[in-house]
Amino acid sequence: MARFDTQIIHAGEPHPRIAGAVVTPIFQSSTFEHSGDTGYHDVRYIRLNNTPNHVALHAKLAAIEGGEDALVTASGMAAISTAILALAKTGDHLLVQSNLYGGTHSFVTQDLAALGITHDFIDADRPETWEALIRPNTRLIYVEAATNPLLQVGDHVAVAKLARARGLVSMIDNTFASPVLFRPLEHGFDLSLHSATKYLNGHTDIVAGAVIGSRALIAKVKHKLDHFGGALDPHACFLLMRGMKTLSLRVLRQSENALALARFLESHAAVSRVAYPGLESHPAHVRARSLFTGGFGGMFSFELRGGVDAAVRFISTARIPVSAPSLGGVETLMTRPVTTSHAGLSPSERAAAGISDALIRVSVGIEDVRDLIEDFAQALA
Question: Domain ends where: 244, 273, 304?
Fold first, then answer.
């Protein structure tokens, strides 16, 4: 089997090449000639996520994460919501990591609750407390590889072990780590999910999601997605396929830059705390070092001693980073989660999660890190 950096270039590409094209063309056709399809979910149609662009992309995603199959969706939240609803129904119960991306948190606490699907939040650092929360109707356990925005890294080995022992489906949002640094299926997880908008694509020009896992589980998710209609357009498939080919180069550079910038901030008198698993001061540094390979990712968050006013001034004074939501692109972005990713949480929910109004989240790009450090230094001054 080819190694990761070879697979990400060549896996899924059609052979023989279509009309000799080195790059898979865009099949911008909603409908395809009938070819003996055996059932509704096999009919060739954009909404059913099975155009030649989808097929190639699914094969590439499955190869790089070591899954049997994969599925792309119209967004990261489409991947998360569809995967959960494909595996949980009214009356079921879930175990969910307590510190999550705001959209996922709202989906679990509001939308799933309205459908009669209950949950308990778990402390991902304390596996000894999880067993007591399992009920006869518990169906799955859901965590994030590194949480948004505080970069907590839970005991993922224990999550997968518990799921196997108790017959639960283990699901992990691997967006922040990406398959370059962490491949959850190799650690026993059943499903790995991504907001492919972020690192997988890496160029801040599409919105997409992905689910990778066993053929049986992906089939269940696909059938649900076929009905929900959250398909990814073939042109977006083409852009995602293109973006993924530089994934290793980008993520490794972003990880190097993030570590250098986080170390600079940690040593600065104006900074009160930095959350980055690559720092020795991070509570889960040793665990992250054992799980992740090649680096600790391009995301970190920090707070200034001056509070909210200082955070607002810093963001407006920095010249290189763009003040914007989202993450994972080649350019450095920064935002206050209270105004973007976690704006949907109540003040009490954010406080319980440790997300202050002054917290700044940074998605480090591939710029020259010396320029980034100089820019952060002038903004702090």
Answer: 244
Q: HSE on the CB side for 56, CA within 13 Å?
A: 27
For the entire predicted model, the pTM comes to 0.95
Asked if the peptide bond before residue 16 counts as cis, ω within 30 degrees of 0, the response is: yes
End position of a domain, from candidates 223, 244, 265: 244
Range of the domain at 193: 4-244
My answer on whether omega of the bond before 179 falls inside 30° of 0, hence cis, is no
- Residue pLDDT, tens place only, 310-369: 999 999 999 999 999 999 999 999 999 999 888 888 888 888 888 899 999 999 999 999
Cα 228 to the center of its chain, rounded Å:
21
Instruction: For 277-302, give one letter per residue: b (16+ CB within 10 A) or e.
Output: bbbeebebbebbeebbeebbbbbbbb
Active site residues: 47, 101, 173, 198
The DSSP H or E segment spanning 169 is strand 169-173
Cα 362 versus chain centre, distance: 15
| CATH number, position 342 | 3.90.1150.10
CA-wise closest residue to 278 among 301, 262, 302, 254? 262
